[in-house]
Amino acid sequence: MSKIISGKEIAQDLRNKLKKEISELKNKTGKVPGLAVVQVGNVAASSVYVKAKTKSAIEVGIEVIDHHLPEETTEAELLKIVGNLNNQNNVNGILVQLPLPKHINEQLVLDSIHPDKDADGFHPLNVGKLSIASHNDENLLIPCTPYGCLIMLKGLGVNLSGKNAIVIGRSNIVGKPMAQLLLKESCTVTIAHSRTKNIEEICKNADIVVAAVGRPKMVKGDWIKKGAIIIDVGINRITIEVEGEIKNKLVGDVDFDEASKNSSAITPVPGGVGPMTIACLLRNTTIAFKNKNR
Ligand code: NDP
User: Fold this and answer.
1) Out of 110, 155, 182, 191, which residue is the most buried by the measure of CB atoms under 10 Å away?
2) Which of 193, 217, 219 maximizes ligand 1 atoms within 8 Å of its Cβ, making it the mutation to test the pocket?
3) What is the per-residue pLDDT across 176-199, written as a single tens digit (0 to 9) for each?
4) Nearest CA to ligand 1 atom 17
5) Tens digits of residue pLDDT in 153-163
6) CB 233 less than 6 A from any atom of ligand 1
7) H/E/C letters for each residue in the chain?
8) pLDDT tens digit string along 90-113?
9) Whose CA is nearest to atom 18 of ligand 1?
């Protein structure tokens, strides 16, 4: 029987620890970490994420500086706002919610965030530091989703060293940094993507499977080696028919029911990686605050 890894519970533990730490930092410095949350436009999913991130941040004692800008905001205007936040003393972390409207160059905006305030860990300097650092340094600002995955893996108490890991997906925000983190844990890492041949065969040899693809239930039960650990990053909305009614359902990139028959541990969707991503954003903001107030 596969263990279900509850991201919800692990994220709650992390938030409790952060809340305590922030209260201690407040007593010591008279200040609390500040997170600027910038949203441009009204993409429904973005609004849901921003709301969840804001709520969690306030709960642990982080001050949220909210910038909800209209869809028509120009690239120059947005860059100016980010520039001001870079210079604002009460702002330790800056989060620009993606996707941005098509007329704005996302990478340009992400690159304009001061690396010390890079709450998402996407700035090229932080990406470089993650790649160079020989171990997972406590002061690094690391992309939230893959770091959340790593915390869940480590929480299992399994020795990761020497394990075969496959990361399916090579995006800058999940796949690539996930591979870096696993490499630092001395896993032997394969990164698979849309051009990879025989993913199924590579997967069958993996002790750890991280799926970050965005394709509902792509990873099948018979791709999974007996005893493998599965981290399912995917969030896919599908429609199903229940008693003649069409309903929406969230599913991962892994066929949970089938894969959990072979795995030793697996994350559910929802309630797995999602909550960890938000908790790690709060962690990064707190680290940025500590780095500044050392
Ligand atoms: P991207 O679309 O940026 O990347 C998807 C990756 O999957 C690409 O590298 C692509 O390959 C690869 N891919 C696509 N089709 C296949 C295929 N048939 N076989 C193998 N690889 C394939 O997605 P993200 O990394 O941003 O997100 C991935 C998933 O994770 C999504 O479902 C997203 O919603 C979810 N997500 C969840 C988060 C959470 O907090 N739980 C946070 C972030 C993302 P190629 O590069 O060749 O195109």
Assistant:
1) 182
2) 193
3) 999 999 999 999 999 999 999 999
4) 194
5) 999 999 999 99
6) yes
7) CCEECCHHHHHHHHHHHHHHHHHHHHHHHCCCCEEEEEEECCCHHHHHHHHHHHHHHHHHCCEEEEEEECCCCCHHHHHHHHHHHHHCCCCCEEEECCCCCCCCCHHHHHHHCCHHHECCCCCHHHHHHHHHCCCCCCCCCCCHHHHHHHHHHHHCCCCCCCCEEEEECCCCCCHHHHHHHHHHCCCEEEEECCCCCCHHHHHHCCCEEEECCCCCCCECHHHCCCCCEEEECCCEEEEEEECCEEEEEEECCECHHHHCCCCCEECCCCCCHHHHHHHHHHHHHHHHHHHHCC
8) 999 999 999 999 999 999 999 999
9) 194
